[in-house]
Amino acid sequence: MTSSDRSQAVDVQQLKTYEVRTYGCQMNVHDSERLSGLLEGAGYVRAPKDADGDADVVVFNTCAVRENADNKLYGNLGRLAPMKTKRPGMQIAVGGCLAQKDRDTIVQRAPWVDVVFGTHNIGKLPVLLERARVQEEAQVEIAESLEAFPSTLPTRRESAYAAWVSISVGCNNTCTFCIVPALRGKEKDRRTGDILAEIEALVAEGVSEVTLLGQNVNAYGSDIGDREAFGKLLRACGKIEGLERVRFTSPHPRDFTDDVIAAMAETPNVMPQLHMPMQSGSDTVLKAMRRSYRQERFLGIIEKVRAAIPHAAISTDIIVGFPGETEEDFEQTMHAVREARFANAFTFQYSKRPGTPAATMEGQIPKEVVQARYERLVALQEEISWDENKKQVGRTLELMVAEGEGRKDGTTHRLSGRAPDNRLVHFTKPAAEVRPGDVVTVEITYAAPHHLLAEGDVLAVRRTRAGDAWEKRNAEPQQKQGVMLGLPSVGVPAPLPAATGGCAID
Question: Which residues form the TRAM domain (predicted)?
Fold first, then answer.
């Protein structure tokens, strides 16, 4: 073995790996990118995708929304316990909403956990890991208020061409089924200038699509007393050169004002897509949920959006079987779905969320009743989704080429991309090289309930700076670096769609 080979072997031995497991909503996905960025800034490298816990640091970014969220966490922690025994120096950290809620309970039930941190202090993870290593005891640190916006922390974005941008955190609503406000705190808005500066920096790196992110994204401005701040922010995004696509999630019907609809319609790079949680079509159930709108108001917003943006694809969240929901209430939801004609809907069977008022309400619905209603709703929405997708056949659309969205792309010799309205389209692979982030023009030839096909030749290919960024990232070998034993360093700035459910069930 040459001295160079020996040096390389030492380098590989010095590498310390990490794995981040994410549960829940888009906020958690965004936070996990920051956790990855913090760990890489501290000298760790990402473990292979099939590591399955075989890493020096395993981080669980948890969700507290589902009734059995804690069982899932402790089951996973239990599976790692023997692995940790066999791997000296391995560390396990638990963060996110469940950590914020359960705090000391986690270390009591799983004493092999090294670090517990909350939703407000994710930036402390490297320091807490180092402290746990030096002191040889678990570190539990839960901040009661936000220490730093997620977007101000270092990041390891999953996508070279698309990015999340956090514009607010927390929520001022009091929905009876949701524990998020208790865990993420009251709404706090970021300064508009900071948001736009981050987006401009992302575009300079090659990002061409951003998704503005907030627990209640269109309430942006309530912190500063400007009810039209969100519409103004959308318009400001329209002036950023090189930013091709702007999306946002998730808005609340209560705060969906006419100026936002106008901003969407009049700003070319704001995409014709809207995800707005309805939760129920029954006024009685909406009142019990403490949702501050009724069916007529919700459908009225959709009507206005479609009048201003005819090709808008509208999606939603719906909860089936909320306590006290009668058959008549459920039929009102079915009616609202027929009227709204959603492009797709994320449908959920109600599950108790510990710590929420709904968990102790009378009139909990039997599981078999909820299941039967859920199946009827899914069947109806499937039919509507297919009908709405069939209307796309014959249209010529520009797609942003996506990475990893088509599971069968390899065997079918297709690529996949997202239309402006965020519909997934599989298209015939052209002769010319096409990279994720590039834009292709295709004609839609076939519709399925959950995707579209463009089976003819690609009409045009546009190479983009986003494609260049993807190519550059994939051409660069992962830098090998050891983990220093002193306190880790910290440093700067967001990809796209990801988790559904969780806090996204607004």
Answer: 390-458
- Whether residue 254 sits in one domain with residue 173: yes
Residue ranges of the binding site: 25, 63, 97, 171, 175, 178
Do 90 and 61 lie in one domain? The reply is yes
Domain extent, residue 236, equals 161-271
Average pLDDT, the chain: 87
Binding residues for [4Fe-4S] cluster: 25, 63, 97, 171, 175, 178
Q: Which among 440, 403, 399, 414 has a CA at the least distance from the CA of 161?
A: 403
Question: What local confidence, expressed as pLDDT, does residue 327 receive?
Answer: 98
Q: Nearest 5°: CA angle at 25, between 24 and 28?
A: 85
The answer as to whether 176 is a domain residue is: yes
Relative to beta strand 91-96, strand 57-62 is parallel
Rounded to whole angstroms, the Cα distance separating 481 from 14 reads 7
Is residue 380 included in any domain, yes or no?
A: no
Measured CA to CA, the distance from residue 477 to residue 490 in angstroms comes to 22
Strand partners, 345: 316
The structure tokens listed for 86 are 């066999």
How many C-beta neighbours within 10 Å does residue 236 have?
16
Token code pair at residue 347: 């449908």
- Among the candidates 81, 106, 141, a domain finishes at 141
- In a domain? residue 307: no
Residue 345: its H or E element: strand 344-349
Q: How far is CA 451 from CA 385, 418, 445, in A?
A: 10, 10, 11
pLDDT digits (tens, 9 = 90+) for 291-322: 999 999 999 999 999 999 999 999 999 999 99
β-pairing, 209-213 vs 162-166, is parallel
Band the pLDDT of 129: cuts 50, 70, 90. Answer: very high
Q: Which residues contact 416 (CB under 8 A, 6 or more apart)?
A: 401, 402, 405, 406, 409, 424, 425, 426, 427
Looking at residue 224, which CATH number applies to its domain? 3.30.750.210
Q: Is the pLDDT of residue 5 over 50?
A: no
- The answer as to whether 444 is a domain residue is yes
State how far the alpha carbon of 320 is from the alpha carbons of 151, 323, 328, in Å: 34, 9, 13
- Which residues make Cβ contacts (< 8 Å) with residue 54, sequence separation at least 6? 47, 83, 87
Q: Do residues 22 and 107 both lie within one domain?
A: yes
| Count of structural domains within the chain | 3
Confidence of residue 496 (pLDDT cuts 50, 70, 90): very low
Q: Output the pTM of the full model.
A: 0.84
pLDDT band at 14 (very low <50, low <70, confident <90, very high): low
Q: Are residues 44 and 131 in the same domain?
A: yes
β-strand partners of 441: 398, 460
